[in-house]
Amino acid sequence: MTASEVRKSFLDFFNSKQHKVVPSAPMVVKNDPTLMFTNAGMNQFKDIFLGNHPAESPRVTNSQKCLRVSGKHNDLEEVGHDTYHHTMFEMLGNWSFGDYFKKEAIAWGWEYLTDVLKIDKDRLYVTVFEGSKEDNVGRDDEAAEAWKEWIGEDRIINGNKKDNFWEMGETGPCGPCSEIHIDMRPNEERAMVDGKSLVNMDHDQVIEIWNLVFIQYNRMANGELVPLPNKHVDTGMGFERLVRVIQGKSSNYDSDVFTPIINKIAQLSGFEYGKSEETDIAMRVVADHVRTIAFSITDGQLPSNNKAGYVIRRILRRAVRYSYTFLNSKEAFVYKLVDVLIATMGDAYPELQSQKTLIEKVIKEEEESFLRTLATGISMLDKIMAETKANNYNVVNGAVAFELYDTFGFPLDLTELILKENNLVVNRKEFEEEMNKQKERARSATAIETDDWVVLQHDDREEFIGYDYLETDVFITRYRKI
Ligand code: ATP
Ligand code: MG
Ligand code: MG
Ligand code: MG
Taking every annotated instance into account, which residue ranges of this chain make up the domain Alanyl-transfer RNA synthetases family profile (predicted)? Predict the structure, then answer.
């Protein structure tokens, strides 16, 4: 099955179960001060769960464009380094608003994976919420019972509050969830069925594919959980992960969602994919980030100096930094990937085609402007190197490397790479000290991480005062009490 066929089969399947197919909401959220980007399929249904407005249809399904680069869900540092976290990804979902509950959600999830897609049942296992004393909630036996109809008890694993209890924010709708994981290790490597070790296993072939959330409580301001009169189902499955599984690949980047883009990067850069870890990471970073930037632009968010635009700018710069450092690309080239992106995703997202000229122009200009900044940084570095050598040193001051990082967006590895070519090194300890000082400064500014949402209490209001960044690419959202 091609990626397009997989997407269609999911929507068709839930449509056959009386779900209305609804479009993806924009990935960039425009009128919600508590959320910058859509990070899950359920975001657009938030007001239904909060009881602010009724559902137009009790069952819906869609494929939602998501972005996880800020707040509670920030996967940016993983992207490119692993093979299954993206910045932008599609989340396939089905919802019940006060309609069906655990039994049907579980039965249909299982039917779709094992009957429609014919995924090997032996490779699947599931988690259920183990319960929580402090919340006075027991194990989610209801979900476990529903699973027992389909899967052996040894493959139903208890999960803790962190992984198996979803909350919208400090207060509001919440509930236990049940995740479906798949073990794609080669047969000979697969352990005997030992669920516990699987769940704790950090293995890139044992991955979570689907999360079924059962919204059945309301978290009150005093921390108490009160059962909701209407119970809801909210599920989310990573489309790129699913396609990789269906196509039997060991990396999302080896499925047809990404191979055309990776091939084009290889062709443009002259580096072959699969030859070295460093260049592979860079190629994955670029392949991932071009999607994010192109889709942000079609959603009306151009790279800029503040808020969402700044996040997008930094993502593009991350792509340029990786390709500059590891793919030896000294000229703008990310924009040249837009064609192939349209060829792979234009069917499902026609706005890519209709806004092609704008996407290419914006990316090219951003790339060129950042490459000029890099060039300025490099000439500064040249001067520093000359001075260091003139003084007969071979160690460059860490504070200088930090300034390059802070002002010119030079990550330490880029500085080190250039220094290495000149037989110089950087004083890492000094660099770390400067970095820590900056983190302290950011921290003391009453920084809090966003939850999925920050629910503003009437008597405890917080005013949004902007985004900031802590480390190279980690953003924090800043609020102050008013
Ligand atoms: P993980 O533990 O792998 O980070 P998660 O538990 O944070 O995933 P959920 O919030 O449960 O993810 O989202 C539902 C599904 O979306 C996941 O089961 C996964 O298939 C997919 N998903 C989550 N984050 C990403 C990402 N960064 N890139 C691609 N797919 C993702
Ligand atoms: Mg995650
Ligand atoms: Mg998880
Ligand atoms: Mg999850």
Answer: 1-482
- DSSP track, 329-347: --S--GGGGHHHHHHHHTT
Note whether residue 116 is domain-resident: yes
CA–centroid distance, 256 to ligand 1, in Å, is: 20
pTM over 0.90: no
Considering the domain architecture, whether residues 283 and 238 belong to the same structural domain is answered as no
Q: Pick the last residue of a domain from 194, 224, 246.
A: 246
Q: Are residues 11 and 38 in the same domain?
A: yes
pLDDT tens digits, 157-192: 999 999 999 998 888 899 999 999 999 988 777 755
Helices (H), 211-355: 239-246, 259-269, 277-298, 307-326, 338-345, 351-354
> Hey, which of 89, 209, 239 would you mutate to test ligand 1's pocket, going by the most ligand atoms within 8 Å of its Cβ?
89
Single residue among 380, 396, 417 that ends a domain in this structure: 380
The answer to whether residues 453 and 42 touch, using CB atoms and an 8 Å cutoff, is no
Q: Give the ligand whose atoms come closest to the C-alpha of residue 180.
A: 1
Distance from residue 235's CA to the centre of ligand 4 (Å) = 10
Please work out whether the CB of residue 241 comes within 6 Å of at least one atom of ligand 1.
yes
288-314: pLDDT as tens digits: 999 999 999 999 999 998 788 988 998
Residue 91 CB less than 6 A away from ligand 1: yes
